[in-house]
Amino acid sequence: MDLPDDLINLERAAEEARARMAGLTSDERDAQRTAWRDAAAKVQAAITAHAEAAGLNRYEVGQAVKRAARGTEQDPAE
């Protein structure tokens, strides 16, 4: 699936925000959780918009974005 780089970058940013919660305590963790939720909401909205515009299944686009962001996207030629 051909995905725009901005979708992949948004997913990576959301995942990085989630990872930054490790080791935080109380107020710091709450603030970081809010940042993570905001980033996750942005990526979900972008995935939905892309899927609708391209006439694609939203779930499949979301899964492809996650695989691409994590570097697990397989080459269809393999």
Global outline? elongated
Number of helices: 3
Helix content: over 70%
Mean pLDDT metric = 91
Please outline the major beta sheet: none
Bin the strand percentage.
under 5%
Radius of gyration: 14 Å
> What series of H and E elements makes up the topology?
HHH
Number of strands: 0
Model regions low in confidence, pLDDT < 50 over at least 5 residues: none
Class per helix and strand makeup: mainly alpha
N- to C-terminal distance: 14 Å
Structural account:
The protein is an all-alpha fold and 78 residues long. The chain has helices spanning 5-19, 26-54, 58-69. Helix 1 packs antiparallel against helix 2, helix 1 packs across helix 3 (58-69) and helix 2 crosses helix 3 (58-69). 13% of the residues are buried. The mean pLDDT is 91.
